[in-house]
Write a structure and sequence with these properties.
Radius of gyration: 27 Å
Helix content: 25-40%
Distance between the termini: 90 Å
Number of helices: 11
Strand order of the largest sheet: 1-2
Shape: elongated
Structural class: mainly alpha
Mean pLDDT: 76
Length: about 270
């Protein structure tokens, strides 16, 4: 007896979903990065061994870098970790170096965006570092040839802050009254790649501060007892500064990085 298959719309939908699910599982399970490398006109891949001939100061310690895991499947060229970001190097090698013969991510962030698509979107937000304008590059903050690519990372967050404060010197301190948030790192309050909020803040109003300052300024400790914290913040007044959504403006805690004059982080 012959059996006839009836392909319904529902069968096709669920069948297609199952196929896509298997493909996604196979991609996640694979321990590799799949990417399209930058292109250089007329160039072919030569392998990382060629790069070491002139750039040993970089390639000698490149093995411990996160980016060292990137490579193209090119059996003839051998290891191609460098060319995953810089493009095929045959023209560069033949010319003995020189501009225009290789991709330089310092000049064009598009080489980074090939993998970091989310960062490309963040740099398009209203408040960002001027990377897309060409006034900064990714390597100003990231050491792409060593470690996990974030400059200054060590046993404490102080090293990470050094990456930011080498440009933002006024926020570095030291301050007589330090804001404890600085010990958590600049990125606890700022998104360095971009934000819809001014100053690249991760939240636009007092909610940013209240993520750490969990005490309720409006709570009464006991019947008949005045909450001095509530009075100080004026929460009993619906027109209070706190209710309007800012902790660091209008003469309140306007020195959020630290103060040399007031322990309430005022100037």
């Amino acid at each position: 007896m012959k059996m006839r298959l009836h392909w319904t719309k529902q069968t096709l939908i669920f069948g297609g979903a199952a196929v896509w699910g298997l493909l996604l599982i196979s991609c996640v399970a694979a321990n590799r990065a799949v990417l399209a490398p930058p292109q250089v006109a007329g160039a072919t891949f030569v392998g990382t061994k060629e790069c070491t001939q002139c750039h040993s100061e970089i390639t000698d310690h490149f093995g411990n870098s996160t980016h060292a895991k990137l490579a193209m499947e090119n059996g003839k060229a051998g290891a191609t970790g460098c060319e995953a970001c810089h493009g095929p190097g045959s023209v560069h090698v033949a010319a003995g170096g020189g501009r225009g013969t290789i991709v330089n991510p310092r000049k064009s962030p598009e080489a980074c965006f090939a993998c970091h698509l989310d960062k490309r979107g963040e740099f398009s937000l209203p408040n960002t570092h001027p990377v897309l304008a060409g006034k900064m590059s990714c390597v100003d903050c990231h050491d792409v040839h060593t470690g996990d690519a974030v400059q200054g990372v060590g046993a404490t967050m102080d090293g990470l802050n050094d990456t930011c404060t080498k440009c933002h010197t006024a926020q570095k301190g030291p301050f007589v009254y330090e804001h404890g948030a600085m010990k958590e790192g600049c990125t606890s309050c700022h998104n360095p790649h971009g934000s819809v909020n001014q100053k690249m803040l991760v939240a636009r109003d007092a909610n940013l501060c209240l993520r750490c300052h969990l005490e309720d300024p409006g709570a009464n400790p006991a019947p008949g007892v005045i909450n001095a914290n509530a009075v100080a913040h004026g929460v009993q007044n619906h027109n209070s500064r706190l209710m309007q959504g800012t902790c660091w403006s209008a003469g309140c805690h306007e020195a959020p990085h630290g103060s040399n004059a007031n322990n309430h982080i005022r100037r």
